[in-house]
Amino acid sequence: MALRSPDGRQPARLLAGQRRGAHGVTLSESDGVRYLHFGSVWVQGAMRLARPFALELEYQQQMMALGLLQPAPRQILQLGLGAAALTKFCWRWLPSAQITTVELSEDVVRTARRVFKLPADDQRLRVVVGDARRFVEATRARFDWVQVDVYDAAARGPVYDDVRFYRACRRVLCARGGAAFNLFGRSFERSVAAIAAAFDDRVLLLPECDGGNRVALAFLDSRSQLNYRSLRARADQLLRDWRLPAHAWLAGLYAENGL
Predict the structure, then answer these.
(1) What pLDDT, in 10s, does the model give residues 86-117?
(2) How many other CB atoms are there within 10 angstroms of residue 139's CB atom?
(3) CB atoms < 10 A from the CB of 226, how many?
(4) Strands 143-148, 173-183: parallel, antiparallel or unpaired by DSSP?
(5) How does DSSP assign 41-67, residue by residue?
(6) What is the pLDDT of residues 47-69, one digit of tens each?
(7) DSSP 3-state assignment of 148?
(8) Which has more confidence, 165 or 19?
């Protein structure tokens, strides 16, 4: 997930009794927010203790901008779990959706369930311990949404960042589906070019977040179907349902992409 804490520094207090796991998992807390790290200053996830099912980080909120394009997903695929913020939010606020989350590290999954309130698997939620690339290349399932947030401790760029991977993400989408990619690091321009190549230039960027992240939305439908009036109506609905800044997403999409 790969962004610093809001003040640019690693939160100071390591949780009592916390030890580094097999993938360098460490935890800290600051001002009522619990942070996940992979043994470095980079924040890999966060949860406000008073609102465990809310989206604390701006880029995670922007990943939900898929709701402007496809507001009623039935099948959601998430690549990368982190502190389980997106998984929990979708599980809570999209009760008609089935969510599949793929995470490489068993230690991350255990940590998410132990201290970030990730629910146990049920009829709507399935957490798969496995490799994101292998999963999208092998699965025959199709999804309305694909949310991709795959980073390691170095956070120099996405772990998988090539046209082949992004084409695999496209392949698992339903006909009217869309994908959201969290982009961070020096590889941003290369990442956008690879996504555009995989999705035939059907890519929209959101404004840069406070932490330096950029979210790219990619989809299969033509951009000509992006009607401002209908998108504004969807933004109204998402603001009511999710209490997220959907109108800011819409304004940002138009400003950043010349729509």
Answers:
(1) 999 999 999 999 999 999 999 999 999 999 99
(2) 16
(3) 17
(4) parallel
(5) SSEEEEEETT-TTS--SHHHHHHTTHH
(6) 999 999 999 999 999 999 999 98
(7) strand
(8) 165
Cα 89–Cα 90–Cα 96 angle in degrees, nearest 5: 140
| 0.70 exceeded by pTM | yes
Following DSSP, what letter does each residue of 205-257 receive, concatenated?
EPPPPTTS-EEEEEESS-GGG--HHHHHHHHHHHHHHH-S-HHHHHHHHHHHH
Look at residue 74 and tell me whether its pLDDT is greater than 50. yes
Encoded amino acid at 242, one letter: W
First to last CA, the chain: 28
Residue 237 token pair? 């609905």
**Total residue count of the chain as it appears in this document:** 259
Chain-centre distance of CA 131, in angstroms? 16
**Type of residue at 108:** V
